[in-house]
Amino acid sequence: MKEHLNLLLIIDTSGSMGEASKSYAAENLIKFIYESIDMKSVQFSSLSLYSWSKKVELIGNDIDEFIPLKYNGQVDVNNLIDFLKNKCTNDITKVLIVSDWSISRKDKNNFESWLDLETKISVRIVQTEVGNTELNRYHTDRIFHPQNIYSVIHSWI
């Protein structure tokens, strides 16, 4: 019997994502994911898109309805953790966060510590700010460059 796999795409819509071309990079990554995943040929049971700044909110499933997004405010990692705790209860869930990952080290550590205890959730972060040296300094197997988006998604399949 196949596992029931959910894919949650969470796009950071904080103010820092509206700077430079990060919003365009994020939106193009989401479009690429929607175009490259044929839901009939993969094992994901569902695909949902959410925005995340202060709280996590459902955007929907139709890609053409949400772009362009509005970017403002700050992300709240505790609200993200609460959302994932409530959303990821019975089924195995894959979560892809598209973000500049511009959060405090304390929040990053809290998020990583929480994830290390979870067994039914796999989180990967695609960082939109490629030149950010934080990606290289912050050691984790959960943060990826945008150019690796295809392998990030397909390694879950």
Detailed description of the structure:
The protein is an alpha/beta fold and 157 residues long. The protein is built from six helices and six strands. A six-stranded mixed β-sheet has the order 3-2-1-4-5-6. The model has no long low-confidence stretch (mean pLDDT 80).
Report a brief summary of the structure.
With 157 residues, this protein is α/β, with parallel strands linked by helices. The protein is built from six helices and six strands; from the N terminus they run E-H-E-E-H-H-E-H-E-H-E-H.
What are its keywords?
157 residues, 6 strands, 25% strand, alpha/beta, Rossmann fold, globular
Number of strands: 6
Which spans of ≥5 residues are poorly predicted at pLDDT below 50? none
Structural class: alpha/beta
CATH class: Alpha Beta
Largest sheet: 6 strands, mixed
Continuous helix count: 6
Quote the CATH topology: Rossmann fold
**Helix-strand string:** EHEEHHEHEHEH
CATH homologous superfamily grouping: von Willebrand factor, type A domain
Q: Reading side by side through the largest sheet, how are the strands ordered?
A: 3-2-1-4-5-6
CATH architectural category: 3-Layer(aba) Sandwich
Strand content: 15-25%
